[in-house]
Design goal:
heterodimer; A: about 280 residues; alpha+beta; Uridine Diphospho-n-acetylenolpyruvylglucosamine Reductase, domain 2; Uridine Diphospho-n-acetylenolpyruvylglucosamine Reductase, domain 3; Enolase-like, domain 1; 5-stranded antiparallel β-sheet; 4-stranded antiparallel β-sheet; 12 helices; about 35% helix; globular; B: about 775 residues; Aldehyde Oxidoreductase, domain 4; Aldehyde Oxidoreductase, domain 3; 7-stranded mixed β-sheet; 20 helices; 28 strands
């Protein structure tokens, strides 16, 4: 790769990272796993003056139970999530999503925080985070705050992060095994053309459905969720709910899939994910 | 091939692999020379534009920049890029090394920067200001030949580059008397070869002796040495071309490219070695593309399935320039259009059309996959039209084994064949009857399940010199060193095919020495003095035969020496298992060690005996070879998403005698992988402005490990009479045989819905739309 010249900074603590980011402002880019940033630097589409590498900050890389929730540090890699016993037990949706991301090399370096903060409309994590109603803790020079997943994704590559804020932690509720992620991948990149993440919450007779790849930002399929509220997960109910998975969505349209096809696949994969999750609920 | 051999026919692991697997092989980019500078090419972002001005001052002023060169600086001093396969009526633009006052495709080289490293070179590139005036773009080849189309090259007055026709037999009569006629348009989409190692070169001109050495990632160092002198003004005997390790070619490195000439020229001009390494994006936009034919086909046949004739009108999108073999590719389609069938009338009319895109040229299969795709799809269309079994339609039209050598309607003579045998074997090993039952059950269960086959034939071992532009022979040299180690030099330039292994097997067997004692050199014109390199699945059949001829000469010479040393006559000497002895006295034998020493020490030689034990040979074949086979594929199509899953893959290939079945299996597997890509997802997409939208692996999918089904592979062996080893070649068989088989399987899966044909690639959305439309009907 032949990028333009940049200064490379490697803070040892999260606070140092925040300070450096504040200091360099828009001249700086944050380097997490680098799997979106490096390709754009390679093509010189991104030419940051300063790279702030979060890779050596030990207290950003963890997966642990914390106050009744599961906390995942922003620098946890896809591979760590894929192989986490704790997540497999307490929040299995993440373990189902992780192995569907990229390939082994990508999963070994790519991070959940980097992916979420980049807000690629076709990334896999946003669907899961939305379906799970996760909380995201972010921090900047003015301190930390929590953003609800459904408020986090604003638009194409845009999040609710302020220009000087960093994502620190993703907090997830424990769920049953009644979860699923079904994805139709773009052949070349492996990104989602339509990915549907489903969480069934038997206790409240509700479901959470997150859809990625279809629109400029990942979204909650609220019409589908409502349709299933309080309903048994019978196949006709599932089909009727899935039918609404891309209602009133302005879908993306590119050489890899037309808007129509994306909306269709959102319905198909929502149905398949609901069926899969429902089958797991019965087990 | 009568006595069993120690190595020939054995699945021996490749001697090349350890260095490749360990990452210690030397590719072009691993070559670092003292004082070497780095070049980077500025490419046009426009597909068609006037170049009003180029400002290079800021780039030249950057510290570390040795020079910035535009067309005005180099085009007058560097010759035009040649096309080696011109057509009689061809109109061609001048292919200068850098753009002049116009650019003709996105990626067209406009300037070149030379600097102390690649980073500075790239920074300098960003400082060059080019003033472009965008012009109308020709991107659709069918619209390009309409009267009101803008012109790709206005000075040519037309977008037609050339026309070519091939016709034989009484076409009119065949179509008149035919019971049935089917018409079908088929689009052979543009593909990007995407070798994993992009192109690259290092040029080093020695001002001391006027020699130019060019290390380049190429399939054809010898052809480069033939063609480059005319461009850069260094005579052939002062030019050395080296193809070090080459990370994939697939035809895309069967070419001479402007960067090779530019780096050579600039090394001469600046007096330093210059390296240029292509980026992936450059590789996608400025290394040749493949296929891109659009054909309207008509076939005449009888109710019993007998085919009478085929005709086609084909448009070949050649891109903006004719590269080395661009016009020859559709002619190979024409020559193979009748496939492995007997019918005697055909016509193919090709129009080569210029567009503002990268040139098309040879890509694995090079024209033959198009032909095979057409004729094998046609066989299925006939079967569907008549309600006949596709197997029976094929069997009805095959020539019998006894009819070989078989003269085709296209003017070729197929050397040998047993098409029925390969088909039968594929049905056996693939469990055809069970597969048909499986289809029936799957369909009853509401699934879209299909079986497809292709019975292909291809043309390999190109070829007799009479059909080639500059020699179709191959050269080789074998030397028994003084230590009795054996050095083999081949003029074929294997670059991943495995001939360092298979040639060592062949020579070790013929000399009766251990394979470990044989070293195969290739890819350097300083050692391999002459050669015609690797393409068209030719290296083993031709290059291997040249080596056999060398060994025969050496054995004859060694026999004389042995007779002298054993105090006998050459006629009484027997050579067996690496030993020479007088007939009836095998205990008193001489081996290569003694003979080599005597031959080089040269104190006790027969009268008039030249010292040394070395021979070189040119092998000139009398005919090409025609490998064939049957591929059977079963697929299931997901009704809701349009995705295709390959459920079963059976390949039975006949490439004649096999030197090393393991190499053949690898070649065929790789070929099938390319086909899976072509059938299911690969395509180059240009928009109407001539912008390449699939210029990275983010957008251009290649088949990966998880896309590859488990292959059931087998072979039949029908020796070729075209060379003494009976070898046919297998480098492209997979790509040629697999493409129609997979497509036929998908079309068969969709046939219950009334879907007859879909063009490639069979993208899920295309299939989903076809299914949706079929439901509506």
């Amino acid at each position: 790769m032949i990028p333009s010249a940049f200064e490379y900074l490697r803070p040892q603590t999260f606070d140092d990272a925040i300070n450096l980011f504040a200091q360099h402002g828009e001249n700086a880019k944050i380097l997490a796993g680098g799997h979106s940033l490096i390709p754009t630097m390679k093509l010189r589409l991104a030419q940051p003056k300063v790279l702030i590498d979060l890779g050596r900050i030990a207290d950003l890389n963890y997966i642990r139970e914390q106050d009744g929730k599961i906390a995942v540090g922003a620098m946890a890699t896809h591979h760590q999530i894929e192989t986490s016993e704790l997540l497999r037990e307490k929040c299995p949706l993440l373990c189902e999503v992780a192995p569907q991301i990229g390939d082994v090399q990508v999963r070994n370096r790519g991070t959940i925080g980097g992916s979420l903060a980049h807000a690629d409309p076709a990334a896999d994590w946003p669907a899961a985070i939305l379906a799970l109603d996760a909380e995201l803790e972010v921090a900047g020079p003015d301190g930390a705050r929590v953003i609800q997943a459904k408020k986090f994704f604003v638009d194409l590559f845009q999040t609710a992060l302020k220009p000087n804020e960093l994502l620190r932690e993703i907090r997830l509720p424990a769920t049953s095994k009644a979860v699923a992620y079904v994805k139709f991948a773009q052949r070349a990149s492996g990104f989602a053309i339509a990915g549907a993440a489903v969480v069934i919450r038997p206790e409240s007779k509700a479901v959470g459905i997150g859809i990625t790849g279809v629109a400029a930002k990942a979204y909650r399929a609220t019409a589908s969720e409502k349709k299933l509220e309080g309903q048994p997960l019978a196949s006709e109910n599932i089909a009727a709910a899935a039918d609404k998975a891309s209602n009133r969505v302005e879908a993306l349209n590119d050489i890899h899939a037309s808007a129509d096809f994306r909306k269709h696949l959102a319905r198909v994969n929502t149905k398949r994910a609901l069926e899969l999750a429902a089958a797991r609920a019965e087990r | 091939m009568t006595t069993p051999k120690r190595y020939f026919g054995k699945p021996i692991k490749r001697v090349e692999d350890p260095r490749l697997i360990k990452g210690i092989a030397t590719y072009v980019d691993d070559i670092k020379l003292a004082g070497m500078l780095h070049a980077t090419v500025l490419r046009s972002p426009y597909a068609h534009a006037k170049v009003l001005g180029i400002k290079t001052d800021a780039a030249k002023a950057l510290a570390g920049v040795a020079g910035v060169f535009t067309g005005a600086d180099v085009n007058a001093k560097c010759g035009l890029l040649p096309c080696a396969s011109p057509m009689p009526d061809q109109k061609a633009p001048k292919h200068t090394v850098l753009a002049g006052d116009r650019v003709y495709y996105a990626g067209h080289p406009v300037a070149i920067v030379v600097a102390t490293n690649r980073y500075i070179a790239q920074d300098a590139l960003d400082l060059i200001e080019v003033d472009y005036d965008a012009l109308p773009v020709v991107s659709n080849p069918e619209k390009a030949i309409e009267a009101d189309s803008p012109l790709t090259h206005p000075e040519l007055g037309s977008n037609v580059s050339f026309t070519w026709s091939l016709a034989n037999g009484n076409l009119e009569e065949a179509f008149q008397k035919a019971d049935r006629v089917i018409k079908q348009r088929m689009v052979h989409q543009r593909l990007i070869p995407m070798a994993i190692e992009p192109r690259g070169c290092v040029a080093q001109f020695s001002q001391a002796d006027g020699t130019l050495t060019l290390w380049t990632s190429t399939q054809i160092p010898h052809l480069v040495r033939t063609l480059l002198p005319g461009m850069v003004g260094v005579p052939e005997n002062k030019m050395r071309i080296v193809a070090p390790e080459v990370g994939g070619g697939f035809g895309s490195k069967l070419n001479l490219y402007v960067e090779e000439a530019l780096c050579s020229h600039l090394s001469m001009r600046l007096g330093v070695p210059i390296k240029w390494i292509e980026s992936r994006r450059e590789n996608a936009m400025a290394t040749i593309h493949g296929r891109d034919q659009i054909g309207d086909y008509e076939v005449a046949f009888q109710k019993d399935g007998t085919v009478l004739a085929i005709k086609s009108r084909t448009i070949a999108d050649v891109g903006a320039y004719l590269q080395l073999l661009t016009p020859a590719i559709p002619t190979l389609t024409g020559l193979m259009l009748t496939g492995c069938y007997k019918f005697k009338a055909m016509r193919m009319d090709v129009t080569g059309v210029y567009t503002h895109k990268m040139s098309t040229d040879a890509y694995r299969g090079a024209g033959r996959p198009e032909a095979t795709f057409v004729i094998e799809r046609v066989m299925d269309l006939i079967a569907a039209d008549l309600g006949m079994d596709p197997v029976k339609v094929r069997l009805r039209n095959f020539p019998k084994r006894s009819e070989f050598p078989f003269d085709t309607a296209t003017g070729l003579t197929y050397d040998s064949g047993n098409y029925q045998g390969a088909l039968r074997k594929a049905q056996q090993v693939g469990g055809w009857d069970a597969l048909v039952k499986q289809r029936e059950q799957a369909r009853q269960a509401g699934k879209l399940f299909g079986i497809g086959l292709s019975t292909y034939v291809e043309i390999c071992a190109l070829g007799p010199s009479k059909i080639m532009a500059a020699g179709g022979w191959e050269w080789g040299c074998v030397r028994i060193e003084m230590s009795a180690k054996v050095t083999v030099i081949t003029g074929a330039t294997p670059h991943g095919q495995g001939q360092e292994t298979s040639f060592a097997q062949i020579v070790a067997d013929e000399l009766g020495v251990p394979m470990e004692d044989v070293v195969v050199l290739r890819g350097d014109t300083a050692s391999a003095h002459y050669g015609r390199d690797t393409y068209g699945s030719r290296a083993t059949a031709l290059g291997g035969t040249a080596l056999i001829m060398c060994v025969q000469k050496i054995v004859a010479k060694a026999t004389k020496l042995a007779a002298h040393l054993l105090k006998s006559k050459p006629a009484n000497i027997v050579f067996r298992d690496g030993k020479f002895f007088v007939k009836g006295k095998p205990k008193n034998s001489l081996g290569w060690r003694v003979l080599a020493q005597e031959a080089y020490v040269a104190k006790n030689l027969p009268r008039d005996f030249e010292p040394g034990l070395e021979a070189s040979s040119f092998f000139e074949p009398k005919n090409c070879t025609f490998p064939f086979g049957t591929h059977i594929v079963a697929v299931e199509v997901d009704r809701d998403t349009g995705e295709v899953e390959v459920v079963k893959y059976v390949a039975v290939d006949d490439c004649g005698h096999q030197v090393n079945p393991l190499l053949i299996e690898g070649q065929v597997q790789g070929g099938i992988a390319h086909s899976l890509g072509q059938v299911l997802f690969e395509r180059a997409v240009y928009d109407e402005n001539g912008q390449l939208l699939t210029g990275e692996f983010m957008d251009y999918p290649l088949a990966r490990a998880k896309d590859i089904p488990r292959y059931i592979m087998d072979s039949t062996i029908t020796p070729s009479p075209s060379n003494p080893m009976g070898i046919k070649g297998c480098g492209e068989a997979g790509t040629i045989g697999a493409t129609p088989a997979i497509a036929n399987a998908v079309c068969d899966a969709l046939s219950p819905l009334g879907i007859k044909h879909l063009d490639l690639p069979l993208l899920p959305e295309k299939i989903w739309r076809a299914i949706s439309e079929a439901k509506v009907k």
